[in-house]
Amino acid sequence: MFFIPYNNKYMKTVIKRSFGLLLALCPFVLSAQITKADYQRADTVVKNNNLVYSPAINATWIGDTHEFWYMNHERRGDIYYLVDAKTGKKRTAFDQQKLAAILTKESRKEASATSMGLASVQFKEDKSGIMFEYNNTRWEYLFKKNILKKLEDKEGQPRGYWGERRHPANNEPVISPDKQWEAFINDYNVYIRPIGGKEVIALSFDGNKELYYSPFIQWSPDSKKLATLKIRDVQVRRIPLIESSPESQLQPILQWRDYAKPGDVLPISLPVLFDLTTKKQIQLDTDPFANQFSLYITGWRKDSRAFTFEFNQRGHQRYIVGEVDAQTGEITHLADEQSPTFIHYYNNYRYDLNDGKEMIWSSERDGWRHLYLFNDKGNVKRQITKGEWVVRKVEYVDEKDQTIYFMASGFNKGEDPYNLHYCRIKLDGTGFEDLTPEPANHRITPSKDRTWFVDVYSRPDLPPVSQLKRTVDASIVAELEKCDITDLLAKGWKMPEVFCAKGRDGKTDIWGNIHRPSTFDPSKSYPVIEMIYAGPHDSHVVKDFLAYNRLISRVCELGFIVVSIDGMGTANRSKAFHDVCWKNLKDAGYPDRIAWIKAAAAEYPYIDTERVGVYGWSAGGQNAMAALLFYNDFYKVAVALCGCHDNRVDKMWWNEQWMGYPIDESYSACSNVDNAHLLKGKLLLINGELDDNVDPASTLQVVNALVKANKNFEQLYLPGRTHSLGGPYEMHRLDDFFVKHLYHQETPVWD
What we know:
Layout: H1 9-25, H2 36-43, E1 60-61, E2 67-74, E3 77-84, E4 89-92, H3 96-107, E5 119-123, E6 129-134, E7 137-142, E8 147-153, E9 174-175, E10 181-186, E11 189-194, E12 201-202, E13 211-213, E14 218-219, E15 225-232, E16 238-243, E17 253-258, E18 268-275, E19 280-282, E20 292-300, E21 306-313, E22 318-325, E23 331-338, E24 350-353, E25 358-363, E26 370-375, E27 380-383, E28 390-398, E29 403-409, E30 421-426, E31 433-434, E32 441-446, E33 452-459, E34 462-470, E35 476-482, H4 486-490, E36 497-502, E37 509-515, E38 526-531, H5 553-557, E39 561-566, H6 575-579, H7 590-603, E40 607-617, H8 619-630, E41 637-641, H9 652-659, H10 665-669, E42 682-688, H11 697-708, E43 714-718, H12 728-742
Parallel strand pairs: 38-39, 38-40, 40-41, 41-42, 42-43
Antiparallel strand pairs: 1-2, 2-3, 3-4, 5-6, 6-7, 7-8, 9-10, 10-11, 11-12, 13-15, 14-15, 15-18, 16-17, 18-19, 20-21, 21-22, 22-23, 24-25, 25-26, 26-27, 28-29, 29-30, 30-31, 32-33, 33-34, 34-35, 36-37, 37-39
């Protein structure tokens, strides 16, 4: 008898021929028996990170200097380093033994020199000390003097709610650039007065509580004009949350959250312009901007000739960069993006050159997200980047050198098209260069003057390498760290596999990862579970090396093949790839995902496509349940956590982006509530009563529809829990659900 590694091509052929028929006839004979030991091992996978030495570093440049610091996890512990970019030399940043001793004394909590757990570390620019958080307190430590000083207590500071709206009432006066005037809002109108003077001059007279002028006033640089917004306010929708089991009292507490939903009436903000010479308002034609999702002012030109604003039409199918002439009030469209589907507006990029005489603007007008140069009349002078690849983020525009530095992906054939690379190109579209040619996902941190950058690259199947490079020629100044995973591999950890297969059209490459448990045995049959998140706002499969993936590793280690896939309808590929989601969130890329899993099973016959599960959070929760409604001939078991099951019940800004406005029948067609009667398979719903990201009513309405349809399902409704679900209890329930329904076994008794 001899051993051939499972990824050996000959072994794959042997497996297919020897086990294919047996697995088809007896799919459960060679399945693993899930034991309590498997559960206990799954509980400890979070400790995998401790076995990874010199992982990806997080470099932080110190102010305007040419030095940066980072913390490195080594066999001896966590060590802080300072690096001089000019020489590439690194040194320990400070005496950690001294800090641990004084920190233990002053905080009255034991601090270890090699595992202090400092948070929010900030080096002083002169490198004489650091500020950090420890034990809910902000501290300052001076190295040479060995002095530790408490700055402030952090415990109990309130956290704001993302959706809260505040009425912009009267505020502090805004002083003109020449220091001669101040402008302010009083009784909802705009007023000015001379600095130190008592005379008050009204510039507007029609403001009231429902139609008021914004206090965020912007003066022209010459102090002769000012711009602000006139806002028609609305009463925002509020959702109730019942805290059933508060610690402060016996009785439940009713909470309220501001929460606009698709179709709701929105505030309208329109630009206004005032002339201080005449003390009058210059009339603007703002009628074309009344049907809006948002409009905000983006500043004055340096020569005071105009100010600009950005307008997003309701429904996200038109986006305008407008310029208002300060003399005439005439509005020029510097960019006017229009789409029959949607404009992915929060990926927009704009950079004004030559005081607005030119503008760099991102657009998908040729089917891929690229950069364009516009003139001040709104005409395209040239396309700067082009090709079947995507500009992901502009990092820096060097106006002196006429060069743009940016992150991009998809231009290397054969490489995972989601891998980020740091690139540059001239404004005239010449001289494209990849500064990070290694075939991996790159995370870069440039110095403030952009002379150097730290490049950390990895893949799910490639441990991180951390380097310091010169920007001018991308040469390597220093090899900072190279990841060591020998202890992790010795423990039996299996490297994820980056896998590619064709999608629904038989042509498009679909990419994802395959995760195998440490106990993996290719002679056994494994259920396959997909961890899904198909939110169209981004792509979601991890492209970096992770020893522990908090959403996947535990489930995998329990004895499942776990996969994650970016199907059509997600971002960062072509516009056509992305547009699959338009008014069609129920699709979730499932035809691509199913084709991908089937291709993986053809390659690896130990993957049993008769036992397929799926789970996900939030939009992934909606996706997970949708699998058992619209694709239940393939998916058999689903766990949906905090799902937004009906896009009419979820938050406006996310759902109208993909489902459109006004509300139409597509919302119902994609609703897990309206289609609950189609359920086939085993479903577990989990959500929290205090979820202010996704209205808890979304899951409860699904429950109501399932009951009316006489469908069998399970539900876990958690008191006191918010949108952040993934604690030990609910994860144990998730584990049990998959073991019971995919392995067809009774689960171990809980302790």
